[in-house]
């Protein structure tokens, strides 16, 4: 019986894993400039954490969560997103009470039982950022600008920043009423899911992917026309600040995000070349979430990057089929005595932080050279009986095909001199 990966889940081999490592390392470096520190949370959480925070009418809660009863008959779930877990950890650790201002970033796998398609997987990865305890809309602008610069540092410039404000508990109810009235008058044009969801949370209709629902909501009342003075002022501050930072954007009143906890500023970074699943990152403000989960009434704002979609964008930008970065040194011993010396040499190279790989199969020199070329090594060290007698090693440059004899005692110094 042959075994296969589960549907919607993927393996990563070195040629692609190297790109993932680059993206993640740059995120760690980049976010640290803004004062963010890494947090890691469990993949498995209590189911109630997500049903309480994400909203009962969201696709995630209704259709997509991997949930089950554990051996203690407690309902648990594989995390479908990262924010709720970070908020839970922030409250449970006591940090929310002791130090109300927190800046965190995280990265790791999430799980949703969706229909697999391009840009959408059942196990997917997110790089996320969360800030607690800061109410200022300047932080919203800083976060959006930081994400803009991060993408540009990777060489991505062909994306669009889309912004919206969802208002607050003061101005959102009147908009809900106006939007609900519009939907009620056009129920026959809605899909079955939206006819049901409009009774609990009309905004979920804006998140529907059905063509008929999308076309209808283009004619619907806009949240932008219902913002209270404070929300309008905050949103203007975000827009003006981004303008001063030279981050281009467009206002899109359809952006509500797929989760119910968002308030005020929401945003998405989209890349048209990705097709239907074009949102590479998204986030916004969630000023009531910490309190909803039993913590103090602290504001919050954050975003998450879809790592698979970011990688796909990089592939399209740099070219599909990215090669593995060149490795440093391959040691090709010929004969048993040479193999013993090569074993010691590889150890010395690694101690000096020079990457080295050794052939243990006692293959022919031709076979070893073929492997070194295939694996994209920069240099090959050839060591046989003749070289042992002379206490030298043949150093071959795999790019130029030039080679020379180097005394064994000097090979480390020589490699230091010629390696970039």
Q: In words, what does this structure look like?
A:
This protein is an alpha+beta fold. It has two domains: about 15-170 and about 225-320, 2-Layer Sandwich (BirA Bifunctional Protein, domain 2); about 325-415, Anticodon-binding domain (Rossmann fold). About 40% of the residues lie in helices and about 20% in strands. It is built from 16 helices and 16 strands. The protein has helices at about 15-30, 45-55, 60-65, 85-90, 95-100, 135-155, 170-185, 190-195, 210-215, 230-245, 290, 305-320, 335-350, 365-375, 385-390, 410-420; strands spanning about 35-40, 45, 65-70, 75-80, 100-110, 125-130, 160-165, 250, 265-270, 280-285, 300-305, 325-335, 355-360, 375-385, 390-395, 405. It has an eight-stranded mixed sheet with strand order 1-5-6-11-10-9-7-8, with helices on both faces. Helix 13 (about 335-350) links the parallel strand 12 (about 325-335) and strand 13 (about 355-360). The longest helix is centred in the N-terminal third of the chain and has 19 residues, at about 15-30. It starts with 13 loop residues before the first helix and ends with a helix.
Which labels suit this protein?
420 residues; alpha+beta; BirA Bifunctional Protein, domain 2; Rossmann fold; 2 domains; eight-stranded mixed sheet; five-stranded mixed sheet; 39% helix
């Amino acid at each position: 019986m042959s075994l296969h990966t589960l549907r919607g889940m993927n393996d990563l081999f070195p040629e692609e894993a190297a790109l993932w490592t680059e993206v993640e390392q740059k995120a760690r470096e980049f976010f640290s400039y803004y004062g963010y520190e890494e947090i890691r949370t469990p993949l498995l959480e209590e189911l109630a954490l997500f049903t309480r925070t994400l909203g009962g009418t969201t696709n995630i809660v209704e259709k997509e969560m991997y949930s089950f009863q554990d051996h203690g008959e407690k309902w648990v779930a594989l995390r479908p997103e990262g924010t709720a877990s970070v908020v839970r950890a922030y409250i449970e650790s006591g940090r929310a009470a002791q130090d109300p201002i927190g800046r965190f970033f995280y990265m790791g796998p999430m799980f949703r039982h969706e229909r697999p398609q391009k840009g959408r997987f059942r196990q997917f990865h997110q790089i996320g950022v969360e800030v607690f305890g800061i109410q200022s809309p300047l932080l919203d602008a800083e976060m959006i600008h930081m994400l803009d610069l991060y993408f540009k540092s990777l060489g991505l410039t062909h994306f669009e920043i889309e912004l919206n404000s969802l208002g607050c508990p003061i101005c959102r109810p009147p908009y809900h009423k106006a939007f609900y009235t519009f939907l009620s008058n056009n129920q026959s044009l809605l899909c079955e899911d939206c006819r049901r969801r409009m009774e609990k949370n009309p905004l979920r209709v804006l998140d529907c992917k059905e063509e008929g629902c999308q076309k209808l909501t283009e004619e619907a009342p806009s949240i932008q026309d219902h913002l209270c003075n404070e929300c309008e002022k905050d949103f203007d501050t975000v827009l003006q600040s981004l303008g001063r930072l030279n981050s281009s954007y467009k206002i899109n009143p359809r952006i509500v995000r797929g989760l119910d906890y968002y308030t005020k500023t929401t945003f998405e970074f989209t890349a048209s070349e990705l097709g239907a699943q074009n949102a590479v990152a998204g986030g916004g403000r969630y000023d009531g979430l910490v309190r909803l989960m039993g913590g103090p009434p602290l504001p919050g704002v954050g975003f998450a990057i879809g790592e698979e979609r970011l990688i796909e964008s990089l592939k399209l930008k740099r070219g599909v089929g990215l090669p593995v970065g060149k490795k440093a040194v391959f040691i090709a011993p010929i004969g048993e005595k040479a193999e013993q010396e090569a074993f010691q040499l590889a150890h010395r190279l690694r101690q000096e932080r020079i990457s080295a790989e050794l052939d243990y199969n006692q293959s022919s020199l031709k076979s070893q050279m073929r492997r070194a070329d295939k694996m994209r090594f920069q240099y090959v060290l050839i060591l046989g009986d003749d070289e042992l007698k002379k206490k030298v090693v043949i150093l071959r440059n795999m790019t130029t095909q030039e080679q020379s004899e180097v005394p064994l005692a000097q090979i480390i110094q020589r490699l230091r001199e010629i390696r970039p």
